[in-house]
Amino acid sequence: MARSDGKEIKATRTSFAVLEAVAELDGAGISELARHLDRSKGGIYKHVHTLADLGYLVERDGAYRLSLGLWSLGATVPKRAVPDRVESIVDNLAASVGHVATLVLYESGRTIATYIRRPTSTASQPFREGESLPLHATASGKAVLAFLPDEERNAVFEGELDTYTDATLTDPETVKSTLETIRQQRLARDDGEYRTDIECLAAPILDDSGYPRGAVGVSRSREESGDDELDTDASLLVSASKSIENALTE
Amino acid sequence: MARSDGKEIKATRTSFAVLEAVAELDGAGISELARHLDRSKGGIYKHVHTLADLGYLVERDGAYRLSLGLWSLGATVPKRAVPDRVESIVDNLAASVGHVATLVLYESGRTIATYIRRPTSTASQPFREGESLPLHATASGKAVLAFLPDEERNAVFEGELDTYTDATLTDPETVKSTLETIRQQRLARDDGEYRTDIECLAAPILDDSGYPRGAVGVSRSREESGDDELDTDASLLVSASKSIENALTE
DNA sequence: AAATATCGTTCGCTCTGTGTGAACAGATGT
DNA sequence: ACATCTGTTCACACAGAGCGAACGATATTT
């Protein structure tokens, strides 16, 4: 099925398709999974059973869910990707601007919110840690997009651009037209394009060769915003992004 | 190889063995993995390639590491397992006792540190979120162990009990002898048995049927400790564990 | 109550694709 | 220059992944 290079393990693809489906459906039974993946019930049964036996799926009330063990397997990754000194920079940024600060990392075609700092413990979060974010509909995503090599950037525009809110830009040309400005200013903006009423500013984090490793962003709800602060926030953001660049390249 | 029930996907077992080995070795190449898992290089090559193509392994400087994508896949799990109201209870506990408070959950034979709260942002952590902890060498682990059904508890003692510090109890009978007291007091203690110079107290979290879902714990370095606080901490801990029990059973 | 639908589980069967071991070129170190 | 790593590719053989049908057990419907 699909294209088989002969140097691929198809069963592994199937098992991860199961895990991804369980995540997407937020818990599911055998039949539901088989239907969703368009596979035989018997076959999916074996995968689910194996994954459960390995401790990566747990059954409760007849539905299988992702286990804490799966999370635990990957839990060291963000700690290693974001050293303490980088966390501190984000912490300080959140404190200075008084809004939520987020560190987003780019990896194989997507950005992932890796570290989030709220200025107070009561502040609400725009997204969860570990959440995968669209490149075209967030400030951080666009900051990364603007600095990607042509080939990699174009790959993003080949698929459909998902809609998240009324303000989401779904036309490739519209998005592309904003990228030149972002490159010049090292600053991207998002006005409720991913979550309604949440405004973001973000600056890219580039490595030595100019390749975008991610972005730092500041988010606030529209009500909180005074346009007067905007310039201050922007300059704090850009300097934070440069500090992170230095911290990451040692 | 191994025992095959016929209703198991062996390729999936192999792929996860690869992921676990990568985690354990903290980055590895094909040959090293093949050697470590005692498998053919050609076969491991296919698994690694598939996992990398799926975006769950990333290559850097010739070594494969777990990706942010793998973490992202499981990142929703702890949020779902620990509702906000439970987080608050742990937050308050940390604030009242002035030490690090930890929520540990039990799942398929192991405990996992799911939520950690430091009283101040400078306090050092005894372990990382997502870390899998031994049942016999931590206060939280012993709190769980004491309330496990006989069969499940005995399974723990069948394997070797790993040593972590000079103080780790590795004799099954010694550990077992402490469990009765823990059951009576609803309180377990660990004195540098997992990390040197770190002292912990923990109370179990039980569901309606008395089955241990996890434990709450308080950790402090030995220097910080005054024995006078101990009784106060213990009672705060026990009442926190009861609040969490209520919060989890709705 | 009877009938229907849907669940998880099991069983053969067929052919695919997993796993092995050997051979390859390219680095790296001696 | 040699020896020893590495990742990659190949052909082969047997295991086992995936399918579809049938099972009893629960729910849901009539």
Automatic annotation (TrEMBL), chains A, B:
Keywords: DNA-binding, Transcription, Transcription regulation. Pfam families: HTH_IclR, IclR_C. One of its GO terms (molecular function) is DNA binding. GO terms for biological process: negative regulation of DNA-templated transcription. The keyword Transcription applies. SMART domains: HTH_ICLR. Residues 69-250 form the IclR-ED domain. Gene3D superfamilies: 3.30.450.40, Winged helix-like DNA-binding domain superfamily/Winged helix DNA-binding domain. Residues 212-234 are annotated as: Disordered. PROSITE patterns: ICLR_ED (PS51078). It comes from the Archaea. The keyword Transcription applies. This is IclR family transcriptional regulator. The lineage of its organism: Archaea, Methanobacteriati, Methanobacteriota, Stenosarchaea group, Halobacteria.
